[in-house]
Design a protein that fits this description.
137 residues; single chain; elongated; alpha+beta; 48% helix; three-stranded antiparallel β-sheet; 2 domains
Length: 137
Amino acid sequence: MKGHIRPRGKGSWAIIIELDGDADGKRRQKWHTVHGTNREAEPELARLLHERHTGSYIEPSKATVAAYVDRWLHDYARNAVSPKTFERYAQIVTNHLKPKLGHYLLTKLTPIHIQAYYAEALRTGRLNGSGGCPLGR
């Protein structure tokens, strides 16, 4: 096993995940805090270990929305959809999502950010200024 749980404070637990060593061979760990009981932390440990094992684990402090959608396009969409659909997905990511949401850290992206982007897109319409909701909603 490449991770474990330890008490962190009253009502919180630390999940420590062993990562691959850096270029110098130094040991690397990532700590995650879970509030609640040890029993509630165990499924989170299992989830994180599964993500690490399958290669889908992204260190939360470093991943941006732009990096995530690029990886999603490359790892999932390219193989799961037709070439024309993939081309359209890539356009949406490049022209809309990355310019407006790409700078956010993945762990800091909240539903309110997405809703604000969506509301702006509905109000302003196309990138060239045409379209949009006539009532300004």
